[in-house]
From TrEMBL:
Domain Radical SAM core: from-to ranges: 109-332
Modified residues (N6-(pyridoxal phosphate)lysine): K335
Protein's name in the database: L-lysine 2,3-aminomutase
Top-level taxon of the source organism: Bacteria
Organism from which the protein derives: Endozoicomonas elysicola
Amino acid sequence: MITRSELSVQTINDFGCWQEQLAGAVTSPELLLSMLQLSTKLLPPALKACQEFPLRVPHAYINRMELGNPNDPLLRQVLPIGEECEHIEGFGLDPLAEQSQNPTDGVIHKYHGRLLLIVGGSCAVNCRFCFRRHFPYQDNRLDRDSWNSAMEYIRSDTSIKEVILSGGDPLASNDRRLEKIVTELNHISHVETLRIHTRLPVVIPDRVTDDLINWFAKKRLQPVMVIHANHANEIDESVREATFRLKQAGVTLLNQAVLLKGINDSPSALIQLGDALFKAGVLPYYLHLLDPVHGAAHFDVPEAKAKSLIKEVMDSSPGYLVPKLVREIPGRPGKTWIS
Ligand code: SF4
């Protein structure tokens, strides 16, 4: 293995503040391949696949990848490849039919008792398997126009106990905007829990600032954060520092992962992920079967294999480190548990 100190193209020691890291994410496949000392043969398919869904990956995340390894489990999650352009039957643009569960712009109401607010469309990292990789964020996000109707929708439905900030990645928005949303929700008495689904504490751990903890954890609402890591190599000391700070502030921390062929589809990878999460104070929550989105079919793991993998994890790990294996089926009032 080539060591990080041998990296000659760009030294990655000082990443800057989180906003600088977000703005400075690598978007050029040529640069990414060069930084990781990978073959230029990977470039033409990467450029082609980028036309459908651009590359985007922050330096702090690249820094955890192995130089010269095209199969690195973190690289495989972000590097566009030729298979993404193949049209595979059953894999579509809106795999969860979310665009029909959208009562007002910026709101997705799929499940009883909870709803999602689409805070924004941008992410710190573009994950190649993302089920929202074709989502029309530009037509459907919480902006100045949709804000009042979204809040009115939540106020008028007293069954909504939990609001989930989603996206895109909600933590890609600035704290002022997020605090405004949370302050408004704080005044709606039937909302009890605020959940954030985010990959930022994993890909840019510096996003967990004092300001973030202040607006998130210091309100009336019970704070829950669901991070997203798929492989143990994603969780390094910087991620642990971020999660410990959240934990100290009283935030319940959970992880959702996607079962991805060639990345975490082995018992050892899943067990190591559970162990790494636990050391970071995070419990495994969901292991999702891949949603059938166009461009991601090469990551698909058959259900039978998934069931046998989870059984092996159960045989080797304490129950609290075994995630629920689930599939999302459009129209169902919750995730479908695959037992
Ligand atoms: S961070 Fe989440 S929403 Fe953004 S691309 Fe990755 S999986 Fe999709």
